[in-house]
Design a protein that fits this description.
By secondary structure, this protein is mainly beta. It is built from one helix and 14 strands.
């Protein structure tokens, strides 16, 4: 966001602020949040929040005491209505431990989440969505197979390439993997 801090959810009711020196402090209470595994900023002071094995998404708006650049004093969440779009492999959005969001065209935003071998691509119509549509695609060739891949951190670079970190060590348990 515009204030150069990282923000993390410590529960469905508490927000933490992380400074560049690693100092963690409370950023206030959150109201209305129903999920809390992962989140990604869609724009300044607005985050899309997801949960592993939950088809629910929330829009979390950070509250500030005096506008952009002033301290965050908590947040207010509202549910996003998620429905299947056309195309893809027809799977159901099953949530994710994290998601990554990238600006699309015409004011839209594209979200990506990887849960085991199911990639979900979510289209948000604006930076303050009340609805979203998704398609799914099955990914093959993952080092840990379909049922063992446990993806944590997920991100998109400035070119729109999606990356996911596989939290499960491969084979004999010696290496992790990052997928592009």
């Amino acid at each position: 966001p515009a204030d150069n801090y990282l923000y993390a959810l410590s529960s469905t009711t508490a927000l933490q602020q992380i400074a560049s020196d690693g100092t963690i402090s409370s950023a206030g209470a959150i109201t209305g949040l129903t999920v809390s595994s992962g989140a990604s900023f869609i724009t300044n002071d607005k985050m899309i929040v997801s949960s592993y094995n939950s088809s629910t998404l929330d829009l979390l708006t950070l509250n500030r005491s005096g506008g952009t650049g002033t301290p965050v004093t908590g947040g207010t969440a509202t549910a996003i209505s998620v429905s299947a779009g056309t195309g893809g492999s027809g799977g159901t959005f099953a949530g994710a431990a994290d998601l990554a969001i990238f600006p699309g065209t015409g004011g839209t935003y594209i979200g990506y989440s990887l849960n085991q071998q199911l990639l979900t691509i979510i289209t948000f119509p604006s930076a303050t969505p009340t609805t979203a549509t998704y398609i799914t695609k099955t990914i093959t060739g993952l080092q840990n197979g379909a049922s063992e891949a446990a993806f944590g951190s997920q991100w998109v670079d400035s070119q729109g390439n999606f990356y996911a970190f596989d939290n499960t060590k491969s084979g004999a348990g010696t290496t992790f993997a990052i997928y592009e």
